[in-house]
């Protein structure tokens, strides 16, 4: 520790940077305040590096695992065009994971270590992908409303402080905006279709609403990391602000389609803020810590892919003759 200065244990930011060189820390924070990007070889506090690895890695895992509930619908999507579009979307999501893992690698954690932490259950990934996609309408709600939530989060964070993450997010957001249009088109088709189609999409919305409300993270009152991440411009909006933005943009669109949001307390108050039933944060905690309906299945699929693909990675990484098939 530098000097003997007293650190108030209630000052979370000060506690997290205890031991850092105060001058370097001040210069780093001044750069962030000026809106400069921090690049991989620049000096950064240990906590900044640790927080970024945690967040980017979790984001990368979410893209990979997020491909699974929709991926199972590729062969069953109605019609050739929708099959093609869904295949392209799923491929994009996996590509996003590649971009994000590359960004996280610039901070010193290897891809192997990240994948290992995912398949052993050490790392988290987004709560929403631990729920089943029972019907085609579930896949449509994911593509519209989960992608909508992801865009709100990513457009904000793309203006953040860490260069490689922001550049990855810029590219991801461009692709996500196509996903959003694809998802919206699918939901409109169902909501304006036959009574059976309306019933399917209403049931899917009812199932997905609670996980979507959880998606933006715990309320600001109980969020652990928001304060330091906002200070260092890694997060550019609080969890509650993002939730409000989502409600503002999408509740009117959902209501326009005649769909019912399963929250009797949802309304905009006189100050223009959305009021809603407090999400069940105990359920959220259970799901992100491995106790959701599909956590075990999702990780088993990922582990299987990892094991079955090992020989390909080894073949690419080695000049070992046993993998080289002579041309006839
Ligand atoms: N799910 O202190 P906070 C997508 C954890 S991409 C699981 O508020 P923070 C694309 C958090 O890690 C979706 N865990 O955390 C797609 C922490 O746990 P820890 C992913 C969550 O970091 C679409 C604890 O709770 N997007 O969908 C969640 O300040 C369709 C306390 O929370 C990103 O990852 C959650 N929802 O804020 C793909 C964006 N929320 O580590 C396929 C980048 C919180 O202390 C199909 N991440 N936790 O044990 C972020 O912006 C932030 O990390 C938040 C959470 C906003 C998610």
Describe the structure.
There is one protein chain. The chain has 328 residues and is mainly α. The protein has one domain (19-297): Ferritin, CATH 1.20.1260.10. 63% of the residues lie in helices and 1% in strands. The chain has helices spanning 12-16, 22-33, 46-71, 80-105, 111-119, 136-157, 163-191, 195-215, 226-231, 239-256, 281-291, 295-308, 310-317, and strands at residues 267-268, 274-275. It has a two-stranded antiparallel ribbon with strand order 1-2. The longest helix has 29 residues, at 163-191. The protein is globular. Phenylacetyl coenzyme A binds next to helix 3, helix 6, helix 8 and helix 9.
Structural features:
Ferritin, globular, mainly alpha, 2 strands, 63% helix, two-stranded antiparallel sheet, 328 residues, binds Phenylacetyl coenzyme A
């Amino acid at each position: 520790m530098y000097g003997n200065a007293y650190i108030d244990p209630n000052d979370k930011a000060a506690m997290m940077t205890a031991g850092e060189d105060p001058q370097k820390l001040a210069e780093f924070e001044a750069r962030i305040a000026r809106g400069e990007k921090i690049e991989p070889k620049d000096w950064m506090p240990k906590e900044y590096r640790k927080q970024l690895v945690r967040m980017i890695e979790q984001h990368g895992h979410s893209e990979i695992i997020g491909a699974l509930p929709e991926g199972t619908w590729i062969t069953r999507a109605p019609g050739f065009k929708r099959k093609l579009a869904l295949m392209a979307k799923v491929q994009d999501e996996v590509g996003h994971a590649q971009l994000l893992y590359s960004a996280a690698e610039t901070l010193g954690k290897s891809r192997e270590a990240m994948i290992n932490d995912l398949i052993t259950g050490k790392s988290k990934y987004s709560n929403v992908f631990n729920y089943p996609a029972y019907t085609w309408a579930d896949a449509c709600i994911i593509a519209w409303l989960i992608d909508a939530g992801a865009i709100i989060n990513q457009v904000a964070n793309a203006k953040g402080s860490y260069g490689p993450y922001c550049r990855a997010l810029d590219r991801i957001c461009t692709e996500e905006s196509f996903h959003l249009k694809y998802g919206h088109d699918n939901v409109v088709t169902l909501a304006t279709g036959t009574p059976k189609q309306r019933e399917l999409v209403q049931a899917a919305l009812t199932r997905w609403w609670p996980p979507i409300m959880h998606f933006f993270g715990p309320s600001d009152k109980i969020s652990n990391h928001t304060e330091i991440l906002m200070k260092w411009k890694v997060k550019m909006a609080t969890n509650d602000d993002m939730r409000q933005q989502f409600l503002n943009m999408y509740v009117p669109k959902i209501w326009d389609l005649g769909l019912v949001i399963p929250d009797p307390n949802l309304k905009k108050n006189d100050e223009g803020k959305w009021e809603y039933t407090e999400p069940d944060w105990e359920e959220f905690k259970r799901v992100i810590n491995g106790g959701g309906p599909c956590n075990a299945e999702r990780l088993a699929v990922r582990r299987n892919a990892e094991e079955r693909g090992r020989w390909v990675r080894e073949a690419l990484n080695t000049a070992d003759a046993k993998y080289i098939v002579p041309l006839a």
